Amino acid sequence: MRKIANFQCGMLAAVLLTVSHMGAQTLVLTSTNNASGNHVIVFRLETSGTGSLNEVSSFSTGGNGGASANAGAVQFDRNFGAVVNYGSNNVTRLVRFGNSIAPAGMISLASGCEKPASVALSGQRLFVVGADCAESHVLFSGALEGSVVSLSNTSAAQIAVGESWAAVTMTAGSVLQLPLNGAGFLSGTSSAVTLPADANNTPLGEAFWGDLLAFNPAHSPDSFALVNRSGGVFPVLGPQPAYPTNAPCWLAKGPGSVWYAGNSPADAISIFFSDGQGGVFYKSVPLAGSPTDLSVSPDQKWLAVIFTAKDGSGGRVEVFAIDGYGDLSAVATSEPVGAAAFSGVAFSE
To answer: Can you give the chain as a three-state secondary structure string?
Structure first.
């Protein structure tokens, strides 16, 4: 029976990966993160006319939320995605059929691992970080592959994957390097990157540009920093005054050399530019609330940001158009859907 199930999963993957994307709608996903029943909310982005972001579906993940101080709770790549169920110690696999997205089974954490906070996708691989370990799975079957990597403490905020290594930001003040084996799964043990004193306070968001990691030491004066595969660190001065007035917390890689960070206390998106060994803060774009995660679309034309509205209406999603210089212009904001806040945001095109 197991061989048949694995064969069916493989056939499903092959069929879905060959589906044409002609006429596909641009969808934006987020999760309610409700500790008594997590849900995924799917919005359709319309860019003609004045633009709109309308809810098209909502479904239960089958698990419970409850994560906090994290990013990457929802991820999507081509026809497949994943969302963490922090309170249930598992991850719900997501699948796209045409212009609809639905749950496609659970992936449980390894024995002894718990409280998944963040996921990352790379090809057919799923990476998960929780309170005490990081692990990698075959996305389609859910099978555990590679090594389960123990963490130095329980403060993991996000996991991200580059070409030859993965990284986990730890809010307690460190960034961990996790090696990948030849098949692309986690292998071995983690090692801490040596961070300078001006860029080590509360690492939160992170993203890769090839094999170059950028992350946000949110409460540091240098609130944006680069890390290469050799562990070299290149801090960049963030918006001033620094924390608590400004704190770029959550990060997404944009087109070219641009990066977008959710600046929570400033109710803004902070924009940085970089090369491989440094960068510069450009400017901040205001939001109508405090951002908690953000994502750039696969075609790099759109930026989606989730935030908690200052007017008390709860979680919102706002989408911006990205121009040829990396600047942003607002396109559409979702209406309230009854969720106090959202966790994680991703595009499906």
So the answer is: CHHHHHHHHHHHHHHHHCCCCCCCCEEEEEECCCCCCCEEEEEEEECCCCCEEEEEEEEECCCCCCCCCCCCCEEEECCEEEEEEHHHCEEEEEEEECCEEEEEEEEECCCCCCCCCEEEEECCEEEEECCCEEEEEECCCCCEEEEEEECCCCCEEEEEECCCEEEEEECCCEEEEEEECCCCCECCCCEECCCCHHHCCCEEEEEEECCEEEEEECCCCCCEEEECCCCCEEEECCCCCCCCCCCEEEEEECCCCEEEEEECCCCEEEEEEEECCEEEEEEEEECCEEEEEEEECCCCCEEEEEEEECCCCCEEEEEEEECCCCCEEEEEECCCCCCCCCEEEEEEC
